[in-house]
Design brief:
Radius of gyration of chain A: 18 Å
Helix content of chain A: 25-40%
Distance between the termini of chain A: 38 Å
Number of strands of chain A: 10
CATH topology of chain B: MetI-like fold
CATH architecture of chain B: Orthogonal Bundle
Number of domains of chain B: 1
CATH class of chain A: Alpha Beta
Oligomer: heterodimer
CATH class of chain B: Mainly Alpha
Helix content of chain B: over 70%
CATH architecture of chain A: 3-Layer(aba) Sandwich
Number of domains of chain A: 1
Largest sheet of chain B: none
CATH superfamily of chain A: P-loop containing nucleotide triphosphate hydrolases
Number of helices of chain A: 9
Structural class of chain B: mainly alpha
Distance between the termini of chain B: 39 Å
CATH superfamily of chain B: MetI-like
């Protein structure tokens, strides 16, 4: 079993002495799905953003795909990581001035130096897998939120990443649009993609995840398999959180 | 159908009622204003058609268009003006093919070397000194050259103002602040009088190019500020997305920042273009024979003495037509850019 991601005692503090992350440690094996849950403000987003260097941290060590980074920022190592790790954001963050296909092929052509025709073919293939290849020539704001988010997933996949990060990918969507994005993510998980997902979707987490990490106030409260976490959480704090989610 | 028309009539009447109220005071005011407008219009038309002596314009049309360009060679500036208006026409009425639209900017840029070749001569054409360039041709030449040089310079200044390198950032802020606190006419005087002093003996830049340098130095500072506004309007999340895709700084600037900021800055940039076009008239004070300069020299001719109203009304009309055309072009461009992207 190849370990893709090792986090050791990652700590990040903001100026007022508040810890955004407090000695967070976990590992992730290739082909598995890690779901990060927790109340808002618990540091979920901060944690997932440290993995590809969008956020720095003050202490601890992170090993992503064999590349080690620590609190000293090494641009070159972060670039290397970003070339192999894809990310999907809450607000899609597509480039509004480019067409869907241009959004998707921008990085493969310019970062990976692939041929334009080859990149476009692969992009179209991925789009058709998501069932949105008819939109290739449109601009992002002509698409619904769910479609935009699937485009964002394709944009990340076009770089053939070894690890995919999802930062609350369904939180900005209409309720009836959530499933089309979750289905796409389910398919990816079934194909053996290694993923880290920040989400509040319990059903999705139950079904797809191999491990659930529960975060509160920047601290890991528990890491357990979804069967145990959702039926018999070991910690009082997790049970409270799950009860709250159920009520909604 | 009949009901609809009736409804429309009622709506129209109601609109008139709300727009022009029939209270006694405002009724009086409206009548007075409307009669003033109509009578001044009649006076103006009367002057234009019966009193004015347009021979000063008719007999000097080629001067207004080409200045003192040798008459055998006047087809050259004419050809250039025709090429420019042809490009403008394609821009406004031409087909909406994507490859054509994408290459229009390159065509516009390409019109400059063509213009220089046609005006200056050499390589098979008889050389014409820049003293003989003039009229509308010179006005347009200075405008297009200055805007094409100051756009990249302005983008560069705006980007370096946000640079993380201390010296570059300070230098560009300093430059922009200086240029924005100096009147244009001072910069133009600097270009005409001081640049020759700084150049080594024997090297000379002629007056037209000194004017273009002056305008470029001045306008680029303003363009930099417009672009900076555009850059600031791009949300941070766009940078995060670009970073997470592994694009480097140069690629982010070229593919994400510049296109998006130009889109936002476009209306302001149009203002710069129109302002620049009008400001080229300042060069008549510094002895260039552009549109206003030609007008002044024609008025100095004893044959046409005292006919300055005709000349200046004619010049104002020419400026008005061209500025309206430019405003229309940029509105078209704006529409094209926002029609499908909606931001």
């Amino acid at each position: 079993m190849e370990t893709v991601l090792i986090a050791k005692n990652i700590t990040k503090s903001f100026s007022k002495g508040i810890n955004a992350l407090n000695k967070v440690s976990f590992t992730l094996v290739k082909g598995k799905v890690l779901v990060i849950m927790g109340p808002s403000g618990s540091g979920k987003s901060t944690l997932i953003r440290t993995i590809n260097g969008l956020e720095t941290f003050d202490e601890g060590e992170l090993n992503v795909l064999g590349i080690k980074i620590d609190s000293n920022i090494d641009e070159r190592k972060i670039k290397k990581i970003r070339r192999r790790v894809g990310m999907v954001f809450q607000q899609f963050n597509l480039f509004p001035h480019l067409t869907i296909l241009e959004n998707i092929t921008l990085a493969p052509i310019n970062v990976q130096k692939r041929q334009q025709t080859e990149a476009e073919e692969f992009g179209m293939y991925l789009l058709s897998q998501m069932g949105i290849d008819s939109h290739a020539k449109k601009y992002p704001n002509q698409l619904s939120g769910g479609e935009q988010q699937r485009v964002a997933i394709v944009r990340a996949l076009a770089l053939k990443p070894e690890l995919l990060l999802f930062d609350e990918p369904t939180s900005a969507l209409d309720p009836e649009r959530i499933n089309e994005v979750l289905d796409a993510m389910r398919n990816l998980a079934n194909q053996g993609m290694t993923m880290v997902v920040v989400t509040h979707e319990i059903d999705f987490a139950k079904e797809v995840s191999d491990k659930v990490l529960f975060l509160d106030n920047g601290k890991v409260i528990e890491i357990s398999s979804p069967d145990i976490f959702f039926s018999n959480a070991s910690h009082e704090r997790s049970r409270k959180f799950l009860n709250q989610l159920d009520k909604n | 159908m009949a009901i609809k028309i009736k409804n429309l009539k009622i709506l129209f009447l109601r609109e008139i009622k709300t727009k022009i109220s029939f209270k006694p005071f405002s009724f009086l005011l409206n009548t007075v204003l409307i009669s003033i407008i109509i009578s001044s219009l009649l006076l103006a038309l009367n002057w234009i058609f019966f009193k004015a002596n347009w021979s000063v314009i008719n007999s000097n049309l080629s001067l207004f268009a080409f200045g003192s360009f040798p008459s055998d060679e006047q087809w050259r500036p004419l050809l250039w003006l025709v090429i420019l208006s042809f490009i403008a026409l394609i821009n406004i009425f031409g087909p909406k093919w994507k490859w054509l639209r994408k290459n229009l900017l390159i065509i516009w840029i390409g019109s400059v070397p063509v213009g220089i070749y046609l005006l200056k001569g050499g390589f098979g054409l008889i050389p014409v000194m820049s003293q003989n360039w003039g009229g509308l041709t010179l006005t347009i030449f200075i405008t297009i050259c200055s805007i094409l040089f100051s756009l990249p310079l302005g983008i560069l200044l705006a980007l370096s103002r946000r640079s993380s390198l201390f010296m570059i950032q300070k230098f560009s802020s300093f430059y922009i602040d200086i240029m924005r606190s100096v009147p244009l006419i001072a910069v133009l005087f600097f270009g005409q009088l001081l640049i020759p002093l700084f150049l080594p003996y024997g090297l000379e830049i002629d007056r037209v190019w000194r004017a273009i340098i002056g305008f470029t130095l001045f306008v680029s500072a303003y363009i930099a500020e417009d672009i900076r506004g555009g850059l600031q309007s791009i949300p941070k999340t766009q940078l995060e997305a670009a970073n997470s895709l592994g694009l480097n700084k140069y690629q982010i600037t070229r593919f994400i920042l510049i296109p998006q900021s130009l889109r936002v800055a476009l209306p302001a940039l149009t203002n710069q273009l129109i302002g620049l076009f009008q400001n080229t008239s300042l060069m008549s004070i510094l002895g260039l024979m552009e549109l206003i300069g030609i007008g002044r020299s024609i008025l100095a001719n004893p044959e046409y003495i005292g006919q300055y109203i005709e000349v200046y009304i004619w010049l104002a009309t020419v400026y008005w037509i061209l500025c309206t055309l430019m405003a229309y072009l940029s509105k078209q461009l704006e529409k094209e850019m926002s029609s499908n992207k909606g931001y």
